[in-house]
Amino acid sequence: MAHIVEHGELGGRRMKKRHVISGLMFSLAGLTLLSGCGSGSAKADSNDQVILRYAYSSNSQPVIDSMNEFGRLVEEKTDGDVKIEYFPDGQLGGETELIELTQTGGIDFTKVSGSALESFSKDYSIFSVPYIFDNEEHFFKVMEDKDIMDGIYRSTEELGFIGVTYYDSGQRSFYMTDGPVKTPDDLKGKKIRVMQSETAIKMVELLGGSPVPMGSSEVYTSLQSKLINGAENNEFVLHTAGHGGVAKYYSYDEHTRVPDIVIMNDSVKERLSDEQYEAVLEAAKESTEFEKAVFKQAVEEEKAVATEEYGVEYNDVDNAPFQKAVQPLHDQFKKDADYKELYEQIRAVADEMK
Question: N or C: which end of the chain has fewer CB within 10 A?
Answer without folding.
Answer: C
